[in-house]
Task: structure prediction
Amino acid sequence: MKIGILNQKGGAGKTTIALHLSHALALRNYQVMLVDADPQGSSRDWAMARESDAPFSVIGLDRPIIHKEIAKLAKGYDYVIIDGAPRVSDLTRSAILAADFILIPIQPSPLDIWAAHSVVELIQEAEIYKPNLIARFVINRKIVNTAIAKEAVDVLQEYPYPVLTAAISQRIAFAESLNIGSTVLETAPKTIAASEINALVDELLQTIEQERHVTEEIIKA
Ligand SMILES: Nc1ncnc2c1ncn2[C@@H]1O[C@H](COP(=O)(O)OP(=O)(O)OP(=O)(O)O)[C@@H](O)[C@H]1O
Ligand SMILES: [Mg+2]
Result:
């Protein structure tokens, strides 16, 4: 299963979520590869900052050939997570073509939600060729103890993809753990930050399973 963490808006939380998701899946004993598709190389920097080997493979591939290389790269892995680049559409387009599932991290502000229309348009273009493509939004940097602003939710509903119930809050622990080449699953495994990541992974795996079921039913019918 190939999961693209994509949004051309800079700073949406792609790298934070890609690294935490990869680590969480590795802790569940899956073979995981993280493809750093961003020329900024943030995920590669994270792996370099680690003192020990990363619990999953990290490779850099920041040219728009991800969709051509993915089958070869994915051999032997249960999950391939693609950490996308901001702005550059050809890299995002290549990552969309490479992925089975697109997770779009988004900050719950109207400006960020409007900016997501670029990635939504690219996904819709790809759906012509890949009708089984699944896409979901995930709210990142939700302010703890606040409801997501109503106008933000209203604008999000204009997009054709659902928002996952699991959301990631604004917590300093996420940024601090990544700075030292770790994740909250290692630095703060018993905190709410770690439970938010695990809840996201649970919902993601359930969604993938449900969608697979729907596809099988359609094939049978
Ligand atoms: N939930 C969060 N809580 C606290 N800080 C966060 C959270 N999510 C992201 N950040 C911080 O916000 C900044 C941007 O996050 P991140 O690098 O994950 O976004 P990105 O989408 O990968 O950015 P880019 O588009 O530049 O690749 C980073 O400094 C990160 O530590
Ligand atoms: Mg990034």
